[in-house]
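Appendix B, record 7
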Amino acid sequence: MGKDKLRRFEENKNFHNLYQPSFDDVFRRDYELKGRWGEHVFGNNYPIVLELGCGKGEYTLALAALHEDMNFLGMDIKGARLWRGARTALEEHRSNVAFVRGRIEFIESFFGPEEISEIWITFPDPQPKRENKRLTAPPFLNKYKTFLRPEAVIHLKTDSRELFDYTKEVVQQREDMRILEAIPDIYRSGEMPVREILSVRTYYESHFLAQGKAITYLKFAVDNPSTQTEAVG
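Structure tokens (predicted):
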């Protein structure tokens, strides 16, 4: 392991906006902040938006800058990547941003019922040979439902047309979800300029665009007719 990565791991321990529960803290048990993120981390009752597989936190930070009346939480398993997001949030004095290091497979251990208002999934591994590992596969969608608020919205932004089409089909087959928007190429959709919320470019997105790949976007709701929440996108 490189010295730079080791240095980042050490710095991570001192970032008050980065939470790193151990395996034993979340395996088959609830994390101590489950159901308490708003009160104990952000100190308010604003809606919480979760980005899964946030990497360096570029999208999490951009969303937080656009919506100061909402809280944003980026989740990833890579501590060296989270270092960049957590450090930037502190440098920019963004109190509505936090990060958590954890496995998405254990996500039900992190969040309580109706704790999250919205999910962003930006450029995840499309898992071409393992459908059930896709972050939009039915097992994962079922996990998300355990902590999403009524009428919560999920966003998928990806360069993988296969993942885009797969997710669209999965959602269309479910009675508890409905597609709100499906754009197979956001930069050639005829909508100019592209909405600010979609024009945020991560390192990976810039790389994919340089390769000439189309960037797709899917937005869908988790239905519960009792309540509606406003999405940031």
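Remarks on this record: Residues 225-230 have pLDDT under 50 and may be disordered. Residues 37-222 form a domain with the Rossmann fold fold (CATH 3.40.50.150).
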